[in-house]
Amino acid sequence: MAAEPVNLNEFQELARLALPKMYYDFYAGGAEDEHTLKENVEAFHRITFRPRILVDVSRIDLSTTILDYKISAPIIIAPTALHKLANPEGEVATARAAASCNTIMVLSFTSSSTIEEVAASSNAVRFYQLYVFKKRDITATLVQRAERNGFKALVLTVDTPRLGRREADIKNKMITPPLKNLEGLLSTKVSSDTGSNFEADANETMDASLSWKDLEWLRSITNLPILIKGILTREDAIKAVEVGVAGIIVSNHGARQLDYSPATISALEEVVHAVKGRVPILMDGGVRRGTDVFKALALGAQAVLIGRPVVYGLAAKGEYGVRRVIEMLKDEFELTMALTGCPSVKHITRKHVRTEHERI
Ligand code: FNR
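Above: inputs. Below: predicted complex with FNR.
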């Protein structure tokens, strides 16, 4: 393989070569049979285009606006854990790449750089991803720190009442460094079942009793807009709108939680139809090509988030690698827009794609 990767999949291979097996498996792996992990990618492959010709595409505008923030393309950095396992600069490097690509970074609650370090490192628009702790005052403290440090929105992840069963981590006895943001707040243990401190920490931390009424509590402690991440059904999408979320992220947590969840691109339209434009809908899971970005927008997403490709870029080539991953995806997306006859993201419609169940 050439040293300079030409697509996101080649970055994955470089990351695999660069990382210790335990860390690569942690990033790459999914839950149980990894059925949904494969489906997240393959479901995109079953969607084809209905390209329109003889449209003036001499100028293409990829930019879009998410919660009033104008970004260069509808491609956002998803919250993923522990970037320092990929590169010593960790989330600081990722944030710098986000700033230079003019996009949004969602910082993971399980980050290895602190909220303050990430905030000081660049002027990227940053959202903060949140899990709700059993000890609510810890969550409240983190919300305040995110607010104080200029984060613009909260992303509440709701698909993780418990950690999914990731068998590669169990086999590798995955041990993670302590989470600096949470220093002194958690007593790090190692699970006697799995040998993994990550799982023991997560299960100590996550409040499995979290329910819709707790959204009110969260709203009562912050003025930041709240996006909800991990919605896969029309029923939950409608509830989310009713409790006043600012946006919905259709996600199955990169297939790391419930195996045999639907591929997110397959679940997207159900949510889009239920929400009827009342709040913006984003999606993540399996986006590896500019064509995937286009397909998600055609099916009603305002933007996509990318998880693993960012970590692979970081592992392979640090901040530059993350920038290249985003730029490559943008370039591919721009080409897709040109070849489908869409000079701006507003021109991308449902009629530009055909899903496998649709007749010609
Ligand atoms: C994640 N994801 C995740 N989500 C979240 O809300 N908080 C988190 O801390 C993490 N951590 C995390 C670590 C790793 C290694 C991965 C791969 C994923 C899920 C993430 O935000 C996103 O939903 C998926 O990664 C999207 O799928 P792709 O792009 O990885 O296929």
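Residues 308-340 form the longest helix (33 residues).
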